[in-house]
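Issue 218. Parser rejects a valid record. Input:
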Amino acid sequence: MLTYYEEDLQNMEDYKLFIGSHVDMKSPDSYLGSVRDALSYGANTFMFYTGAPQNTFRKPVETLKIPEGRALLKENGIDESKIIVHAPYLINAANIAREDIYELSVNTIVSELRRTAAFGVKVMVLHPGSHVGLGVETGIAALCKALDTCFECDGTDVKIALETMAGKGHEIGRTFNEIKMIIDGCKHKERLGVCLDTCHISDAGYDINDFDHILDEFDKIIGLDRLLVIHVNDSKNPIGAHKDRHENIGYGYLGFEALYKVVHHPKLNGIPKILETPYYNEKAPYKQEIEMLRSGNYVEDWRDKL
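Output the parser choked on:
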């Protein structure tokens, strides 16, 4: 059993940790089932998709047991403002080369913002997309135009958290400067924030072991007030690999200690931390990972005990 960071934690009496994971939303219990899963993991936040992430088919929100799920959150003292929605993967509003994909992306973003609001959720994570070889500036300009269109017609106050990306292929948003370019290029900047993914930024070339420097750079370029969500993932690949392959906590190149310090960093007080680590032997690892990240007690070979 290893304990990290204890001295620092003793000086953080006002620190409030919100930690959870991605949870499924499946029939027949839908959102009520999502809340139950999160509670079973010991979570006080979670992230979900309003439907399958790979397509645009969506059940009517009236059928998803939203009132029952929200009531269970309230019953357990869960702060609803800390719950997160993730937009579908197929969205690519940076692809101006394909008008059909661009229009589908805009329509899907609008639909997902409205669905997110129906759950009482205030933040939706969005992958910035790919410029498909047309260049970063062209992709960013297309995304900014799309976001402005969405914000002018969605009728909600839901914020979009642009996710930091690993830099594979033609992805945009792989550096803090690119994220800043997107924010600066939009008219409705008040509706934009950032989701920082630990695996992605490491794969993009940022050194997690120097996390204080990362946050200083983020604050200087973007501003910590825009940091709305943290995705806490270990990485199967070394720094700068541009691969985006998540690993369980402590089994990848980032390691438990570095990720524990991210989770408990005083500058991230109150920001939801969401695990997107893979299942192991078809079993959810989140209860064990959340417990270790809360306590600082890392159990060697913990996956074998699932």
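Fixed in the parser; the record now loads. The longest helix spans residues 99-118.
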